[in-house]
Amino acid sequence: MSGTFITFEGPDGAGKTSVLRAIVERLAPLLGDKLVLTREPGGKDSQVAEAIRDVVLDPNLPSMDAWTEALLYAASRRQHLVDTVLPALAADKVVVSDRYVDSSIAYQGGGRRLGIEAVTEINQFATKGIMPTATIYLDIRPEVGLQRIQENRQDEINRLDVEKLSFHQRVTDAYHQLATQYPERFLIINAEQDLADVITDTWTALMPILGIHD
C-alpha cells in the first residue's frame, strides 16, 4: 500500500460535508488525478457497496436489527475497499474518504451498545486491518450537532439522525475513546468554531501528512 489514506470522521452535524468540500477544492489543483474522493457507506465506483448503502440508511426500515446494521456496514466497507480504496492506494494516489471503520465502532459499537471490541473485530475481518494514514475528527457536542441538523438538513435526515440525544452522546463518547487510543492517527479539530476556522485548522493539520508546504 503506497498511497495515502485520509478519513474524515465526526458526529452528525459536525459539518463534514462542508469541510470536505473546501479541502477537496484546495487539494484538487495540487493533486489532479492522484486525488480520489469517496464516502461510506457505499463509495465511488462500487455498485455493490452503494446497493448496501440504500438498505442500511433507509428510514423506512426502523426494525433493522442492530447486529444486521453493523454487518451491513462492514460488508459495504469490504466491497468499497476492494473496488475503490485498495486499487487507488496501489496506484500511489491520495484517497480521501468521508467515514470509515471508526464510524462503525462509534455508531454501532457505542451508539447501538454492541460494544467497541465486538464491532472492531467485525471490521478487522472485513478490512484485513487496513487503516487510514490519518483521520480528521471534527469534534462537536452532540446537542450542538443535532441542533444544526434540525436547522439545516431537514431534507436529508436518515435513520441515524432521528435517534435520541443519548444515542448521539454514546457515539461521541466512543469517538473520544478511539481518539485517546490512537492519538498518532486522530487529528482533532474543534468543529464548533466558525466554518472558515474549521477549514483552516483542518488544512493545517493535513499539510504535513500530505507533504504540502506554504
From TrEMBL:
Record organism: Weissella paramesenteroides ATCC 33313
Entry EC number(s): 2.7.4.9
Catalyzed chemical reaction(s): dTMP + ATP = dTDP + ADP
Protein's recorded name: Thymidylate kinase
Family designation: Belongs to the thymidylate kinase family.
UniProtKB keywords: ATP-binding, Kinase, Nucleotide biosynthesis, Nucleotide-binding, Transferase
Residues binding ATP, per UniProt: 10-17
GO biological process terms, semicolon-separated: dTDP biosynthetic process; dTTP biosynthetic process; dUDP biosynthetic process
Alphabetized CDD domains for the sequence: TMPK
